[in-house]
């Protein structure tokens, strides 16, 4: 019998050929620095208001000093009363379990100390493959011996307090509560620091079997019995008096359950529209190499990395955007009216709003307006989580004449002056584009035009001619440099190097684009030609409070949340484009003439300060756009049917995006000093 009892201890110290000392030492070293998965938090711009969380395992790491002594004592009493006497393995417990298991011919009793249990949890949590998970949790003698050896080694590296802290942050308490912070919040709606002896005993009792002793079940008999056992053990160890233990055992278990939010659909109702920005954040995150080599790794980091993420949305601008989109088209319309506001010089997204409710519940949505979708397919309104504003997989909407900006900007950057004139006919036959013959929307657009008047009146034939002078591919490539992506097979084919030189219709906006892309592209023009990648965050910090960084291709370490900007066109070219873009809005350019009228002449009066922009409509007004900007903000708004692009919004609706942008800029900038655009130089005016 003595030899039988001694075997497990001898095996733990001389573990044999199957598990080398070197391999165990390496794993033990990893466990001394490894931390369990932790919930990531998404905050409003104040950095304090929690909008939602992201987690697979709800957990927030908590220091031992921030835990009540009650829970520390209760977990020792429940799981390992000799914790402070042994060195990772309890010889008495091993002997007792070995004899009991030998007699029962099975596993009737365990001998795991808190340290051994922590080793098992840490190996499980740090596992990178299913095989490693299995090795960490399978019921085998080899696993138990490995745990013993590693527990002995771990106690040479960490103090008892450090091990207890890590244990309490790793243990599973049921109801997706991993760690004592989550357990305290979910079962009692309080922090671990405020746990009473009764509450601590209840939670400590859960670790052995969270489902069997679940106090939230309809029958609390087993949970109460387990709690009372823990209270008795606490009394025996001198943590509480026998009188206090008896009094506590007479109390019923009183829970105050809470269910922490998870993911974008859990954002509180009063911030419902922020769900679209949250969804964009996830799509943006999944594309960042800083968080992993692929989408799966990156999203795993989001749910397990314990990040503190602050959205870039500005509450005042977001409120203005929400108020001004959907004013005429409510959530019950098949036509989506959305807006995105971007900050020139940083690329930070300041507002995302659309006349939809962010919700996964599509039960009450009517059938899709697309006749090819079938009768069971639901429409995207009033509820949706589809990325209608951009940042996801949807291609977007044809943006019409807002694309005239790209060949004009390319021409200016090539050295052509704003005064470049052409006697634009009503209809123009292009020999460059194999006889393609576009026409203007109105005969009043015919006649001699410059970039100012051509842009202000949106003269198609002028811009097809201008595009010919520089080559359509230059406008296409510039649009790419300003953040546009081609998401349909047709657009990708036309934008290819072999086809782009013949893509004459590019300037008329036949390609799909998203309001996120268009707001950010025009923001680069407002920033004197400096393009900044769209970014949905103000800051991202690691669990230890340090800013999250990544290493560039050039080896430079940078913060993930910092703007990523580059000069795309010269400042003078951008200023010249802005001067021409003041014409569509009814504003007065610094250097030229708009030709007497424009396509959105109400904008300047609404905004009440210098403003530039461009309207855009497609054939039969299937969609309508307006992109506008001041030196401080750029905004893009559209109206279209996301389900069926052939469901025309009609000419009467084309004013909706114009009003949405103008009123949002007005409200967002109210009370702020008026800033002027910088005029272009004499050289580029011509």
UniProtKB/TrEMBL annotation:
It comes from Micromonospora echinaurantiaca. Residues 50-234 form the Glycosyl transferase family domain. It comes from the Bacteria. It catalyses: [GlcNAc-(1->4)-Mur2Ac(oyl-L-Ala-gamma-D-Glu-L-Lys-D-Ala-D-Ala)](n)-di-trans,octa-cis-undecaprenyl diphosphate + beta-D-GlcNAc-(1->4)-Mur2Ac(oyl-L-Ala-gamma-D-Glu-L-Lys-D-Ala-D-Ala)-di-trans,octa-cis-undecaprenyl diphosphate = [GlcNAc-(1->4)-Mur2Ac(oyl-L-Ala-gamma-D-Glu-L-Lys-D-Ala-D-Ala)](n+1)-di-trans,octa-cis-undecaprenyl diphosphate + di-trans,octa-cis-undecaprenyl diphosphate + H(+); Preferential cleavage: (Ac)2-L-Lys-D-Ala-|-D-Ala. Also transpeptidation of peptidyl-alanyl moieties that are N-acyl substituents of D-alanine. GO terms for biological process: cell wall organization; peptidoglycan biosynthetic process; proteolysis; regulation of cell shape. Residues 339-643 form the Penicillin-binding protein transpeptidase domain. InterPro entries: Beta-lactam/transpept-like, Glyco_trans_51, Glycosyltr_51/Transpeptidase, Lysozyme-like_dom_sf, PBP_transglycosylase, PCN-bd_Tpept. Pfam families: Transgly (PF00912), Transpeptidase (PF00905). Keywords: Carboxypeptidase, Cell shape, Cell wall biogenesis/degradation, Glycosyltransferase, Hydrolase, Multifunctional enzyme, Peptidoglycan synthesis, Protease, Transferase. GO terms for cellular component: outer membrane-bounded periplasmic space. The keyword Cytoplasm does not apply. Gene3D superfamilies: Biosynthetic peptidoglycan transglycosylase-like, DD-peptidase/beta-lactamase superfamily. One of its GO terms (molecular function) is peptidoglycan glycosyltransferase activity. In the N-terminal section; belongs to the glycosyltransferase 51 family. The keyword Transferase applies. This is Membrane carboxypeptidase (Penicillin-binding protein).
């Amino acid at each position: 019998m003595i030899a039988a009892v001694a075997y497990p201890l001898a095996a733990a110290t001389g573990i044999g050929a199957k598990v080398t000392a070197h391999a165990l030492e390496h794993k033990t070293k990893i466990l001394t620095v490894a931390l369990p998965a932790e919930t990531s938090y998404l905050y409003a711009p104040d950095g304090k208001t929690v909008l939602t969380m992201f987690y697979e395992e709800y957990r927030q790491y908590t220091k031992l000093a921030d835990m009540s002594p009650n829970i520390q004592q209760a977990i020792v009493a429940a799981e390992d009363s000799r914790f402070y006497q042994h060195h990772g393995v309890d010889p008495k417990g091993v002997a007792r379990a070995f004899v009991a298991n030998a007699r029962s011919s099975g596993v009737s009793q365990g001998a795991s100390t808190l340290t051994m249990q922590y080793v098992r949890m840490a190996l499980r949590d740090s596992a990178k493959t299913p095989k490693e998970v299995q090795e960490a949790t399978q019921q085998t003698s080899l696993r138990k011996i490995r745990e013993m050896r590693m527990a002995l080694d771990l106690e040479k590296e960490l103090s008892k307090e450090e091990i207890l802290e890590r244990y309490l942050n790793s243990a599973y308490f049921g109801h997706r509560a991993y760690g004592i912070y989550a357990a305290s919040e979910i079962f009692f709606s309080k922090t671990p620091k405020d746990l009473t002896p009764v509450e601590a005993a209840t939670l400590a009792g859960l670790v052995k079997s969270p489902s069997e002793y679940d106090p939230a079940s309809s029958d609390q008999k087993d949970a109460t019995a387990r709690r009372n056992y823990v209270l008795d053990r606490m009394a025996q160890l001198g943590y509480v008096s026998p009188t206090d233990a008896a009094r506590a055992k007479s109390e019923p278990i009183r829970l105050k359950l809470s269910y922490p939010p998870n993911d974008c659909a859990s954002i509180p109702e009063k911030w419902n529209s922020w769900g679209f920005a949250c969804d964009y954040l996830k799509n943006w995150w999944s594309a960042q190499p800083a968080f992993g080599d692929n989408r799966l790794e990156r999203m795993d980091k989001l749910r397990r990395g314990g990040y503190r993420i602050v959205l870039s949305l500005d509450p005042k601008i977001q409120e203005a955007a929400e108020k001004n989109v959907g004013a005429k088209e409510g959530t019950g319309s098949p036509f989506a009216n959305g807006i995105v506001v971007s900050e020139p010089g940083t690329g930070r997204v300041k507002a995302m709003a659309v006349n939809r409710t962010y919700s996964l519940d599509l039960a009450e949505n009517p059938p899709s307006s697309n006749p090819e979708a079938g009768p069971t397919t639901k429409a995207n309104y009033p509820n949706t989580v589809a990325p209608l504003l951009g940042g996801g997989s949807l291609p977007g909407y044809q943006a019409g004449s807002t694309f005239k900006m790209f060949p004009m900007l390319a021409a200016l950057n090539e050295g052509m002056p704003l005064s470049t004139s052409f006697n634009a006919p009503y209809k123009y036959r292009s020999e460059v584009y194999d006889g393609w013959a576009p026409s203007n929307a109105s005969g009043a657009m015919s006649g001699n035009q410059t970039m100012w008047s051509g842009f202000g009146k949106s003269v198609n034939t002028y811009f097809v001619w201008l595009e010919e002078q520089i080559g359509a591919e230059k406008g296409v490539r510039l649009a790419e440099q300003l953040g546009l992506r081609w998401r349909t097979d047709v657009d990708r084919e036309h934008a290819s190097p072999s086809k782009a030189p013949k893509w004459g219709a590019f300037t008329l906006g036949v390609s799909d684009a998203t309001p996120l892309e268009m707001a950010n592209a025009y923001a680069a023009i407002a920033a004197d030609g400096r393009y900044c990648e769209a970014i949905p965050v103000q800051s991202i910090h690691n669990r230890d409070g340090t800013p999250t960084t990544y290493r560039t291709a050039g080896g430079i370490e940078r913060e993930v949340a910092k703007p990523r900007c580059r000069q795309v066109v010269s400042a003078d070219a951008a200023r010249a484009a802005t001067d021409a873009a003041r014409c569509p809005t009814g504003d007065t350019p610094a250097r030229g003439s708009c030709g007497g009228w424009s396509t959105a002449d109400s904008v300047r009066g609404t905004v009440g300060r210098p403003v530039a922009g461009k309207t855009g409509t497609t054939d039969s007004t299937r969609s309508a756009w307006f992109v506008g900007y001041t030196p401080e903000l750029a905004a893009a708004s559209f109206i279209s049917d996301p389900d069926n692009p052939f469901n025309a919004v009609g000419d009467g609706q084309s004013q909706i995006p114009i009003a949405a942008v103008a009123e949002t800029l007005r409200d967002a900038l109210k009370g702020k000093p008026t800033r002027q655009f910088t005029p272009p130089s004499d050289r580029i005016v011509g």
